[in-house]
Amino acid sequence: MSLNLTDITLTYPDGDSRLTALDRVTLDAPRGSLTAVVGPSGSGKSSLLAVAATLIGPDAGTVTIDGTSTTGMTRGELTGLRRRAIGIVFQQPNLLPSLTAAEQLQVMAHIGGRPAARARGRAMELLDAVGLADHAHRRPHQLSGGQRQRVNIARALMNDPTVLLIDEPTSALDHERGAAVIDLITRLTHQQATATVLVTHDRTHLTAVDRIAEVHDGRLRLQRDDLATRGTEA
């Protein structure tokens, strides 16, 4: 498993008491698989993604990435782990307005310590994978909303993460562009062999994902698991 959440409990202060955001959540995401996490607003989806990204430490339970438990890691060690093993696609692309599409990706390579010569080639490879090789020299204002989201996804893959975490990638897109982005994520998950967890409130485009899990009142349950079905058939 590339990503393993085991018995995760997360609470937040709520006046004189604490509010439970995640209640003993367990989720395994193997490489090359896409898990969609759905649920209403306030159900705990974003909290689950934040814990998986090591941005928030849980009250109890363990997060394991590539066989390494994050329990007891320092802030610096967690930062290094994120740079090395985790790609995060935020809801808003937040691209740097002065940089071209290729430069957006190359900045990530610089942060990750990649040699500049290799970074250019990797950036062009990923832009080609998301269908934007011809737009490599364009800046964000020259790209459509769907194209900016594609750059956002390519940027998250720049340092070859084993875990890819995606937050509401279609929220600002129309139906057609949203479907195209989900298709792209599905294809890249299999091509790049990432353990991908996609948080979304939109169930419309989820026919091709490997798993669907629902979070409700902080508890998670699998609604569909095609990986288990394929394993049984094998």
Which features characterize this protein?
alpha/beta; ABC_transporter-like_CS; 10 strands; ABC transporter-like protein; single chain; globular; nucleotide-binding; ATP binding; 234 residues; Rossmann fold
Characterise this structure.
The chain is an alpha/beta fold and 234 residues long. It has one domain: Rossmann fold, CATH 3.40.50. Helix content is 35%, strand content 28%. The protein has 7 helices and 10 strands. Strands 6-7-8-3-9-10 form a 6-stranded mixed beta sheet. It has a 4-stranded antiparallel beta sheet with strand order 2-1-4-5. A hairpin with a 2-residue loop joins β4 and β5. α3 packs across α4, α4 packs across α5 and α5 packs parallel to α6. The longest helix is centred in the last third of the chain and has 18 residues. The protein is globular. The model has no long low-confidence stretch (mean pLDDT 90).
Highest-level CATH class: Alpha Beta
State the helical fraction. 25-40%
Strand order within the widest sheet?
Answer: 6-7-8-3-9-10
Total number of distinct structural domains = 1
What is the CATH superfamily? P-loop containing nucleotide triphosphate hydrolases
Please state the CA-atom Rg, rounded to the nearest Å.
Answer: 18 Å
Organism: Streptomyces sparsogenes DSM 40356
Protein name: ABC transporter-like protein
GO molecular function, one term: ATP binding
Keywords: ATP-binding, Nucleotide-binding, Transport
Layout of strands and helices, then pairs:
Blueprint: E1 3-14, E2 17-29, E3 33-38, H1 45-52, E4 60-65, E5 68-69, H2 75-85, E6 86-89, H3 101-111, H4 116-129, H5 145-156, E7 163-167, H6 175-192, E8 195-199, E9 211-216, E10 219-225, H7 226-233
Parallel strand pairs: 3-8, 3-9, 6-7, 7-8
Antiparallel strand pairs: 1-2, 1-4, 4-5, 9-10
Helix pairs in contact: 3-4, 3-5, 4-5, 5-6
